[in-house]
Amino acid sequence: MGQNTANLLEDPIKALYRKYLLPSISATLVTSIYILADTMMVGRGVGAVGIAALNLLLPVFSLFFGTGMMFGVGGSVLFSISRGRQEETMCRRYFTAALMLALLTGMFYGTAFQIWFDPVTEFLGRNESMDLFVRQYGRILIAGAPVFVCSSFFQAFVRNDKEPKRAMAAVIAGGVSNVILDYVFIFPMGMGMAGAAIATVLGSLITVVILLTHFVSPANTLKLTRRFGLREMRASAVNGASSFLVEMTGGIVIFLFNRQLLSYVGDLGVVVYGIVSNSALIAASIFNGISQAAQPVMAINFGAGKRERVEETRRRALKAAAAAGILFTAIGLICPQVLVYAFVEPTREIIAMGVTAVRIYFLSFLAAGANVLFATYFQSVLKPGFAMAICMLRGIILNGAFVFLLPMFFGVNGIWAAMTVTECLTLLCALIMLKEGRKTA
Fold this sequence. Notes:
Layout: H1 3-10, H2 13-45, H3 48-84, H4 88-115, H5 117-124, H6 131-143, H7 145-160, H8 164-186, H9 192-212, H10 230-264, H11 267-303, H12 307-334, H13 336-343, H14 348-361, H15 365-380, H16 384-410, H17 412-440
Helix pairs in contact: 2-3, 2-8, 2-9, 2-11, 3-4, 3-6, 3-7, 3-10, 3-11, 4-7, 4-10, 6-9, 7-8, 7-9, 8-9, 10-11, 10-15, 10-16, 11-12, 11-14, 11-15, 12-14, 12-15, 13-14, 14-17, 15-16, 15-17, 16-17
C-alpha cells in the first residue's frame, strides 16, 4: 500500500480534512469567478440586457461542467474505493472508462449544440431583445464544450490522486486569466459578449493544461489500460449522476425561474434574478468545496471498511457547511444593496425588487450546504440512489413544484421563496435517508 494511501487511512481526520478543505474551496470558488467575472463586466460593458442573455445561457454552461463532474467524480470515487481495497487493476479501468466518456461527450456537445443552436436557445427563453447577445456569447461558449467538460473531469481525478494543491493552482490560474482577459476583451478591445465568451473558454483551457501536468509528475498514479468495458463506464456514470445533478441543479433552477419571471414581471425579473443567481454562485461554490474536500477521505476509508472515519469526516464537513450557510444568509439579510450595485448601475425598479429578492432567496443557504454534503456522502458510500434523490428533490421535483405554486399565492415574492422552501424540505428528507442508511449499513 502506498504512503499517500496509508495517510488517508491512518492520519487524524481533522488534519486530513483541513489539508483538502482550502484547496477544494479555492478551486470551486474560482470556478464560480468564471461566471461572475463575465456577469459583472458584461453588466458594466454591455448593459442589463447582456446580463439577461448571459443568465439565459448559464444552464448550457452547467450542462458542460456538470457532465465533467459526473464522469470525474463518479469515476474518481470508484477509483478511490478500489485503492482502499488495494485493487490497482480496477483503479486503471475506472479512470480509463471515465476519461473515454468525458472526451466523447464533450465532442458530442460541441457538435450537437452548434447544429441545434436556435431551437435550444429558443427553449431557454431567447427573445428579440437579447437575440444578438445570446448568439454572440452562445456560439463561442458551445465551441468550448470539450474544454469545460475536461476541466471539471480532471479536477476531480487529480484531487482524488492526492494532489489537491495542483487542482487548486490550475483553477486559480484559469480564473485569474479569465478575469484579466474579460477586462481586456470587453473594454480596451470593445469585443462585448464575444470577448467575454472567448475569455471564459481560454481561462478553462489554461486550467486543463495545468491539470495535465499531473500526468508527468512523480506523484501521478492515474494510468490508462486497454482492459475496460461498459461495466466500468456504467458504474462511473451511475455513481456520478448525483454530481451531475448537483451542478445541473443550478442550470435547471435558473431555467425555471427565468420562465416564471418572464411571465410575471418580464425582462426586469430576469435581470434581477441574474444578480441573485450569480451572487448565489459564491455560496454554492463554497458548499461544493466543503463537500469535495470530504469526498476523497470518505471514499477511500469506505473502501477500506473504516466506517467510523467516514462518519467523522461527514460530521466535520457538516459543521463547516452549517457555518458557511449562516454566514451567507447573514450577508444577504444585512447588505443586499451591495450585491445589487456590484453587477449593474441599478434603476429604482431593480433596487426595489433586488433587495427583496436577495433577502428571501438567501434564506435557502441555511439548508443548502447540508444538502450538497449529504449528496456527496451518499455517493462516497455507494448509495447513489439516495444521492440522486436529494439532487432530484432540490433541482426538479420540489423546486419545480414550488416555483409554479407559490407565485399563485404570493406573486413574485413566491418565486424568490421557492428555493428556501425547497432546500428546507430536502434537508428533512436527507436526514430521513441518513437514518435509513444506517439501518441497512
